[in-house]
Design brief:
64% helix, elongated, 141 residues, two-stranded antiparallel sheet, 2 strands, 4 helices, mainly alpha, single chain
Length: 141
């Protein structure tokens, strides 16, 4: 069956007796009295449905918050490793410092687990210390 538009199926499909032609209808739903009422109600229902979906997507559950917090902590540890490798190879590590600074400025989601929060605070502190040491090295030079 080929759907060609809001009126239903294409002309090649024979119409079934007892069914309304034109428009979309659900099995037990009665057809609307006027096509103007149907046309006016359809966009409102569509907008309300989209609004509800958007509201549900905006709600963040504890699992997603925890996942984001762990991802942020892992990213900070990766940036700290980049900085360590740059310093060990004798480079200034300016790019690694910039990436570390950017990652540290990201908002950290607070998790309900106090152990995870403590670990993330320690990672944040270590990153802040490395940035402060780099700033001291720049000012001393």
């Amino acid at each position: 069956m080929k759907v060609t538009g809001p009126t239903g199926s294409s002309a090649s499909q024979p119409s079934r007796p007892g069914k309304a032609t034109g428009g979309f209808s659900l099995g037990g739903a009665a057809p609307a009295a006027s096509s103007g009422a149907t046309a006016a109600a359809a966009p409102v229902a569509g907008v309300a449905g989209v609004s509800a979906l958007m509201a549900l997507q905006g709600v963040e559950d504890a699992t997603e918050r925890r996942r984001r917090a762990i991802r942020r902590g892992g990213g900070l540890l990766d940036r700290l490793d980049e900085l360590k490798l740059a310093l060990l190879s004798g480079e200034a590590g300016e790019g690694a410092l910039e990436r570390l600074s950017r990652a540290l400025r990201e908002e950290r989601p607070v998790d309900a687990d106090p152990g995870l929060n403590g670990l993330l605070e320690q990672i944040d502190l270590r990153a802040a210390v490395e940035l402060a040491k780099a700033d001291l090295r720049r000012n001393a030079a």
